[in-house]
Amino acid sequence: MADLADTSFSGRALHRRTFLRVAGATAASSALVLAGCGKDDDPTVTDVGTGTLVFAANDTGILNLTYLLAQISASFYQKVVTTPPADFTAADTAACVDMRDHEVIYRELYKSVLGPNPQTGAYDNGLATALEFNFTPYTLTTRAGVYAAARTLEDIGVGAYNGLGRRLRNGSYLRLLLKITSVKARHAAFVRDQAEPDSFAGSDVITQTGNQAGLDTIKTPVEVAKSLASLVPVVLVADNLMLL
Predict the structure, then answer these.
(1) What percentage of the chain reaches a pLDDT higher than 90?
(2) Could you tell me the domains of the chain?
């Protein structure tokens, strides 16, 4: 077992992975309590055609987008854990298991909060079917490829949460997103450090100018939908969320 006092790159990675496990468990336990909060918005999907997923202009629409993000991330890490690249180490696999478990918890949490009719996928005559996500844009046969893909997904997630929180009206939902955002940021920092040491605060994810300088970048719902387009076999329409 690695020395917990190790200050080398591998030691720093171990510290971060240990934090991921603890932080994820803490946020998850808090989030599960919030799952019992009242549902202010009607979760019934409206204006959704076959092959199109339209996010409503309310808290439900926001939570459906974060639900989709959790589904994608959980599926991604499950795919990596099931078929890891040949150059993956045991520590790499363990880290991906931790992050998968976090995302599965968030996925099931959102599903619980949204109630019996969440926007879960493609719709045919009003019946939801599970989505099959497409990860072929990424190279998952090498360690470098997996962490590059994870970096992309986690950066999308952090930017999405940063942009969605201010649009929420329900304070309980906002607290939920803030807790999960902190863990998502740790995910992003960890995978970025694996992809490229000391890149966790790179200029591509930190705003360089203006009143947001020094803070994580923010993605609008439309930018998030565009970033996910190649992974999801339906058309994502997030324009309504821009009105919030």
Answers:
(1) 55
(2) 9-243 (1.20.1260.10)
